[in-house]
Automatic annotation (TrEMBL):
Upper classification of the organism: Bacteria, Pseudomonadati, Campylobacterota, Epsilonproteobacteria, Campylobacterales
Key words, A-Z: Signal
Domain of life: Bacteria
Protein known as: Phosphate-binding protein
Gene3D superfamilies: Periplasmic binding protein-like II (3.40.190.10)
Pfam family, any one: PBP_like_2
Membrane-spanning segments: none
Residue intervals of the PBP domain: 22-309
GN (gene name): pstS
Length: 349
């Protein structure tokens, strides 16, 4: 090997080492619901520091956890945004891949909204009616499960309008969909004999019916990717359709869309923060603490995100739809995040 070639090889190796051991730009993946809030923090970081604006990719919570837990090297994400809490099996995958120091940050509350064009009349539905409209299998008159035959809301219940059922919602990779399935489908069907009796008949063969949550795939429910803005656009164009997404997207488009009453409760910041609105949840991000020493921008980004300027009652994120945590809870979370308290599998489900 010539001296020139040897020098080039050493220089290339040094550059690769620097790239793998230090990085200025934060890498973030995850929830489409948390995306606008994280983007606002990223923009403020860019405006107020010398750090480059973070890379934020809206993958959905489920896919985000897979990427986050893939490994500990600097080619993997530093932070995951999530519209649901990390699951135990996801935590175990992280541990298996050497990620053992993770901190959980709760940033606020959100409601999952069942919305429509504001050109329609107000719509009110129960959680049971919504579950029956969207499930792949429903009971017939003899309490036997059949493929969902309902094409119009009035077929689900006579009190509902004679209007086509058409729903645009999140894909399987979405934390919003996970939460929707938990609160609407699983919670409804675990108390209905048609599902539980089938599960009890053969618990191995009919395991899926213990907490049934399969969504129909006959064109009534349309998965619309991880960009909730696409669902908003569909509702504006298709007046009969409904959409499922986070509250901030309703707040941002209140001149075009209206929410639906669920069990008699209209989604508002007050009913969501109190838990009165049935489909309420917390929003999160998770920190890969092992990356912080090599990605110095993380410390400032996290401080900024947890500051009153961003997540406080009159903060920037509140103005774009984030529902603020109660002051005591917010202060408790801020302390936990500042100390980088490690997530324990015991608090996960």
């Amino acid at each position: 090997m010539t001296i020139k070639k040897a020098s080039f090889t050493l220089l290339s190796s040094a550059l690769i080492t620097i790239n793998l051991n230090a990085r200025d730009q934060i890498k973030i993946v995850g929830s489409s619901t948390v995306y606008p809030f994280a983007s606002a923090v990223a923009k403020k970081l860019d405006e107020t520091t010398n750090y480059p604006i973070p890379i934020i990719i809206s993958t959905g919570s489920g896919e985000g956890y897979k990427l986050f837990c893939k490994g500990n090297n600097l080619n993997t994400p530093d932070i995951i945004n999530a519209s649901r809490r990390m699951k135990k099996e996801e935590f175990r995958i992280c541990e298996k891949n050497g990620i053992t120091n993770i901190t959980e940050a709760i940033i606020g509350f959100d409601g999952i909204i069942f919305a429509q064009s504001n050109e329609n009349k107000p719509f009110s539905i129960t959680t049971k009616q919504l579950a029956l409209a969207i499930a792949a299998e429903v009971p017939n008159k003899n309490d036997k499960l059949i493929k969902n035959p309902y094409k119009r809301w009035s077929q689900v219940h006579p009190s509902l309008p004679n209007r086509e059922i058409l729903i645009y919602g999140p894909p399987k990779s979405s934390g919003t969909r996970d939460t929707f399935e938990d609160i609407i489908l699983k919670a409804t069907f675990k108390n209905m004999n048609s599902y539980i009796s089938l599960y009890n008949k053969d618990k191995n063969r009919y395991k899926a019916y213990k907490e049934y949550h399969k969504i129909r795939q006959d064109g009534v429910y349309i998965s619309s990717g991880e960009d909730d803005n696409i669902i908003v656009e569909k509702l504006i164009k298709m007046k009969n359709a409904f959409g499922i997404f986070g509250y901030s997207f309703l707040a941002k488009n209140k001149d075009k869309l209206i929410g639906t009453k669920i069990d008699g409760i209209m989604p508002t910041s007050k009913t969501i923060s109190s838990g009165e609105y049935p489909i309420s949840r917390s929003l999160y991000f998770y920190i890969k603490n092992s990356h912080e020493k090599d990605v110095p921008a993380m410390k400032k980004y996290i401080e900024l995100f947890m500051s009153d300027k961003m997540t406080g009652g009159k903060g920037i994120l509140n103005k774009i739809g984030l529902i603020t945590l109660p002051k005591n809870k917010r202060e408790s979370v801020k302390v936990s995040v500042k100390k980088r308290v490690k997530v324990s599998i015991d608090i996960l489900k």
